[in-house]
Amino acid sequence: MKKLAGKIFKIILPLILGGAILYWMYRDFDFHSVSKILFKEMNWMWMLLSFPFGILAQAFRGWRWKQTLQPVGENPRASTAVHSIFLSYAVSLVIPRIGEFARCGVLKHYDNVSFPKAIGTVVSERAIDSILVLLIALFTFLYQFKVFNLFFDETGTSIHSILRSFSFTGWIVTAICGIAVIILLYYLFKRLSIIDKVRGTLHGIWQGVISLKDVRNVPLFIFYTLAIWGSYFLHYYLTFFCFTSTSNLGMSCALVTFIVGSIAVIVPTPNGAGPWHFAVKTMLILYGVAETDALYFVLIVHSVQTLLVVLLGLYAWLALAFTKRRKIIVKD
């Protein structure tokens, strides 16, 4: 019962959180006017042109994942890897973050890929993506500092107040606590490794994590990584031209709102619904977009792109249904 309650809580809480933010944002919104925007004022050509980049972003991720699995002795089919990515994004709409485990399960089921090793490579991928996003965010922050400063003021957050809240002693204590946590986790995992099953699992995860150093074609890996995020950006940026209010904002605004939205989806709600809407809408307003137009933009763009994720997930589900499982070869 406790496990069941925990699972239900993990599903319900993100829905409530995302729903509460969306309700607060759209509580006085006229939804009847959305149909007018969709069918009379919106330029759908640009939305359709953005779709291939949304598909490519996930496909590149699947191809890169296949590459990171090769150094640990796993060689899944490229099609299975891509389909697992499509499916993972779709199932994450129901339970946030569950997709990472789902895609590893797909490779385990169809291509006999070690689940712990697959999880380890996912951790490596996420680390690389996080570093890249942080670098882009830092560049964007410095380039558009005035806009970010306005954003913090509008949302009641002050960078100076955050920094001043920590004294020198406070920073020292925080560092000591961080080191203590790392040491504690180290000894905890060391104790757990006594159990063979846990030790094997941790070893598999560690193999996956360090697999990046043995990637055979580093330039290709770098290309896939840049292509993933370049495709994500174009998938988002092209939607600016769908609306009169955003068509003239330029690439710098698109980059800023893209980064802010990418950071906002860290909050565990289905496809970032709620936090993404709030963050992007606020930034658009700071760039001079009327609040109503900003609400139209985030509602329509997020809804259409989420629909694409659902369709790709359905396609992957059907494709996998006709995919033959690899036979396990037992060596004498």
Proportion of residues in β-strands: under 5%
**Helix amount, in percent?**
over 70%
**Which ranges are low-confidence, i.e. pLDDT below 50, for 5 or more consecutive residues?**
192-198
The coarse silhouette is globular
Helix run count: 14
Category from helices, strands and their pairing: mainly alpha
Per DSSP E runs of 2 or more residues, the count of β-strands stands at 0
SSE pattern, N- to C-terminal: HHHHHHHHHHHHHH
Report how far apart the termini are. Answer: 44 Å
Provide the descriptors you would attach to this structure in a database record.
globular; single chain; mainly alpha
Description:
Helices cover 74% and strands 0% of the residues. The chain is built from 14 helices and no strands. The two termini are 44 Å apart. About 2% of the residues have low confidence.
Q: SSE layout and pairings?
A:
Elements: H1 2-26, H2 34-41, H3 44-69, H4 78-91, H5 99-111, H6 115-143, H7 145-154, H8 159-164, H9 168-192, H10 196-209, H11 218-237, H12 251-264, H13 275-286, H14 291-321
In short:
By secondary structure, the protein is mostly helical. It has helices at residues 2-26, 34-41, 44-69, 78-91, 99-111, 115-143, 145-154, 159-164, 168-192, 196-209, 218-237, 251-264, 275-286, 291-321. Helix 3 (44-69) crosses helix 14, helix 5 runs antiparallel to helix 6 (115-143) and helix 6 crosses helix 10.
